[in-house]
Amino acid sequence: MAQSRPTQPLSLNEYLQSQHRLLTKGDYWNCLTSTKVIARYLLAEGRRPWIARLRKTELRSDGVFHARLTPQGLLPLRTWTTHYVCCCDDVAYEPVAGGTLPLESYSADLFGQEIPLEVFVSVDDLAEYVSQ
């Protein structure tokens, strides 16, 4: 009987690419869950990541409107009203892009528009947040 090989854990880059493949196949994908996994990789490397939230809101007479965020060049099309991304050292670790993007141009590169990044989980709170 043939022995099965133990599976090697994915590297961070392989994880980003595997998540990108899920997106391009049209499978279910959750950005916050993926972001927590990425943060765990970076913490294990001794780095200091944080999680950002992107959302574009407008005050209207009937309340707050959450605009759609649709990444450029991703097929099948995906749209969110809120998106989360793990950031570290001026880089966004983005499965939607299948890799990393510079923070200075992140939202324009991914969504084609400037959307401010909000700190969702700070560097100091991240280890506890991802351990839950």
Please give the structural blueprint:
Elements: H1 12-25, H2 31-44, E1 50-54, E2 57-60, E3 63-66, E4 83-88, E5 91-94, E6 99-102, H3 106-111, E7 118-121, H4 123-131
Antiparallel strand pairs: 1-4, 1-7, 2-3, 4-5, 5-6
Helix pairs in contact: 1-2, 2-4
Looking at this protein, list some descriptive labels:
alpha+beta; five-stranded antiparallel sheet; two-stranded antiparallel ribbon; 4 helices; 7 strands
What does this structure look like?
The model has no long low-confidence stretch (mean pLDDT 91). This protein has one domain (12-131). The strands form two sheets. A five-stranded antiparallel beta sheet has the order 6-5-4-1-7. Strands 2-3 form a two-stranded antiparallel sheet. The protein is 33% helix and 23% strand. It is of the alpha+beta class and 132 residues long. It contains four helices and seven strands.
